[in-house]
Amino acid sequence: MIRQNLDTVKSVIAIIGFLIVAYLIFTNASVVNQLILGYGLVGLLIAAMIANASIFLPVPIDLVIFALSAESANYFDVVVISIVAGIGAAIGEMTAYIMGLLGVKTAEKAKHKEFLQMGKVREKLGTKGMVFIFLGAMTPFPFDLIGIVAGLIKYDVKKFFVAALAGKILRYLIIGAAAYYGLSFAKDLFFI
What stretches of 71-189 show up as alpha helix (H) in DSSP? Predict the structure, then answer.
């Protein structure tokens, strides 16, 4: 019992730490750029973790992915950026899953409208599982809600992580390809 309480305390401290850092980054978006410029792919990994660890507080990592991909020298760089950001995003999304594991009281602190939607998400997770998580990770829909519900129902953590990872990587690949090929097309079109 004491060990379980200690693990819960550690999880809560980790989530609070992530949320504080995410809030600081949200209020000062230039920190994300400095992380990436100063630390390269490691900075991108950390920025993606923080951006996706912020519960119900969007941090614009998609814009960073778009900008980095648009300036890439080749498409391989876009793929690497997408994979690194996807890994960071999937790790960051685990904070919502952990919040769900901590119990219903944590979920009730979420916005009332989002709490009412949890029943619908629970039903989808029960019937569609990994496909629902994968599709949710690909969309701009608040994925935190899916993570919280998955934690609440104690959905298999490995399946959750793999589906979130695949969805985030594909999302960033789509954003990266749009930036890379769109900018290349515009340059060719306007002879830039």
Answer: 75-102, 104-108, 112-128, 130-138, 143-152, 157-189
Question: Residue 132 carries which side chain, given as an amino acid letter?
Answer: F
Q: Does residue 191 sit in helix, strand or coil? A: coil
Contact at 8 Å (CB) between 43 and 49? no
Number of domains observed in the structure of the chain: 1
Hey, how many other C-beta atoms are within 10 angstroms of the C-beta on 106?
A: 19
pLDDT band at 171 (very low <50, low <70, confident <90, very high): very high
pTM to 2 decimal places? 0.70
Q: What are phi and psi of 43, to 5 degrees?
A: -65, -40
Q: How far apart are CA 2 and CA 135, in angstroms?
A: 38
Domain span holding position 100: 2-189
